Description:
By secondary structure, the chain is an alpha/beta fold. The protein is built from eight helices and nine strands. The strands form two sheets. The protein has a seven-stranded mixed sheet, with helices on both faces. It has a two-stranded antiparallel sheet with strand order 1-2. The protein is globular, with a radius of gyration of 20 Å. The termini are far apart.
Amino acid sequence: MLQEAAKIPLATTKRLPLYYRFLQNFANAGQKRISSQELSDAMKIDSATIRRDFSHLGAFGKKGYGYDVQELLAFFRKTLDQDEATNVALIGVGGLGSAFLKYNFHRNHNTKITVAFDSNSPQEGEQISGIDTYHPDKIEEKIKEYGIELVILTVPSRSAQEVTDRLAHTNIKGILNFTPVRISVPAHIRVQTIDLSVELQTLIYQIKQN
């Protein structure tokens, strides 16, 4: 049984979708059980880290047997709500936003961008990469209409907080923020910021240190 979310480290929660993806690969290959070392070799994550992560989630493994692949898949499917659809909105159809629309989470059957917003789109909407796309003036109206829970934010930095303030008055639950701005949100909205320039600089630093 999953322990209280507050007791599970953030680093562990970030690895949950990866575990699910790799377990799907093993299941598709017909593998019935798997050891932490096999999972480690596939994911390039230390086996001790995997065992520790799984201990946070509950006891699955059996000594001398390993982990039942289907049992783990069922657990992660339930934990990650893979059987329930999550509607996502994209705000900002620039270079990065356009890439998101073309990709549209093809490997995740339960997660889809269902509506997008861009300042160059007309009020009445248009289709971009098969997705209904509207002018930002329609954000509040369309987020309610499409039942949006999560938003991907790829707007220019100068607009990030202004758009976020508008989103705070909707029923969204989370924002995946790709702007370098540290946006402020009310307590009921979760934010995960991915600053690509910071990630790149971190990688460069690590390379130089080696």
